[in-house]
Design goal:
The complex is a heterodimer of chains A (172) and B (287).
Chain A (H helix, E strand, L loop, with lengths): L1 E2 L14 E7 L2 E7 L5 H8 L18 E4 L2 E4 L12 E3 L12 H8 L9 H14 L5 H7 L10 H17 L1
Parallel strand pairs in A: 1-3, 2-6
Antiparallel strand pairs in A: 2-3, 4-5, 4-6
Chain B lengths: L6 E3 L4 H8 L5 E4 L5 H6 L7 E4 L9 E3 L5 E4 L4 H5 L2 H6 L1 H6 L6 H6 L2 H7 L5 H8 L3 E6 L2 E6 H4 E3 L2 E2 L6 E7 L5 E9 L9 E10 L2 E10 L6 E2 L1 H7 L6 H14 L10 H23 L1
Helix pairs in contact in B: 10-11, 11-12
The chains are: A alpha/beta (172), B alpha+beta (287).
Chain lengths: 172, 287
Amino acid sequence: MTTVHEIHEEATGDVPIRRITITVNGERRVVECEPRLLLAHLLRQGLRLTGTHLGCDTTNCGACTVLVDGRAVKSCTMLAVQADGHEVTTVEGLATASELHPLQEGYREEHGLQCGFCTPGMMLSAKALLDENPDPSEEDVRWALSGNLCRCTGYQNIVKSVLWAAAKLRSE
Amino acid sequence: MYPSRFRYEAPRSLAEALDLLRTGDEAKVLAGGQSLVPLMKLRFAAPGLVVDINNVPGLAHHELDAEGNLHVGALCRHADLERSQLLKAVQPTMAAAAPLIADPIVRNRGTLVGSLCHADPQGDWASVVLALDGAIVAEGPAGRRTIAARDFVLGPFQNALAPDEIAVEAVIPAPRGTPAGGYLKLERRVGDFATVGVAVAVETQADMVTRAGIALTGVGGSTIEATDAEHALVGGALTPDRVAEAADLAAAAARPKTDHRGTAEFKRHLVRTFVVRALGRTGEEAA
């Protein structure tokens, strides 16, 4: 069991800590947390899954995107307690011990990664797209990634990377 | 950033949710959370109790009733509306608006009803529902009541719900003629507030406009219903002259301010252009 206590403010005593169960990257985790803990903080600090990045912290940039039950969600804009009973996928859940996910390979092949900060969020938005639409057009990819900002403005190669991954996944 | 402390409850029925609201603990209802959670993080909102209705069954629908009225439940996400074949078939104004709300990730969580309750003067759905003469159904201790969209927003971020009421759905009345129209929006980038948004919803019978709704986003301190433009359209065909007159009247109804998104003149011009485009397309569809 993981206990999360990273918010250091004087406890008022009248806010109950809640115990929640979430499945993260296939692994069942039982967590005790305050209701105000954000899913992003639970993942990064509580579960030490620092692949999920916090960029703007204001629901704009999409760096904190994870999948909740297969749908892309900004984890800075969801309470951890809301994930109780649900399945969460983070960027750490893409690769296996021996093999990169095709999206990660695509990023390597097409130079999709510049500073890398937006990359995990981009990859999870892209995964949600490819799970639903295995043969997206370039326009579909741009549309699906329009909630994720890359401040290096490396969009061209990110789009190419996702299209590369789509082709790879279709050929498997 | 994280919110101030609050008590959190996730009831499994509407009755239980309503009971929680009666505890009078400065409660807020949480549906999609795409406006409420950011406000709580910025500490503009600091509710004592958050009632998360995501586990309440029977609120995720969007469907037509026997009379053809469209019901959109409090847990129907923007993304559900974006993918809806039903909307594409029966409700062109909403079908046009759904893909333009926020960004794709926010659309996966956020809800139309929550957006109306949030009452942001820049909200897109408020214009759309106003143009369609929609209403909000609220449930409280005394039962259900229906509040017209035009009476629902009392001011910026203020709605007409009592503290012990929950907005359970929005209702769009069945069209009596052939529905047409759209929602046109200029935004600097995906997810930004509209520089200008224009919702147009007309109904025609034998080429004659029998009902017209035009509402504007981003060109005043609130959603603006362009009533003069609406009146100018009803009772005639969508001829170029009548469309131009309606567009001019809609532009006159706008109260834009010059800001970082553009000059007042530019925004007024956009209102006129968007009305012409929305009605021009409508005219082609009718022909």
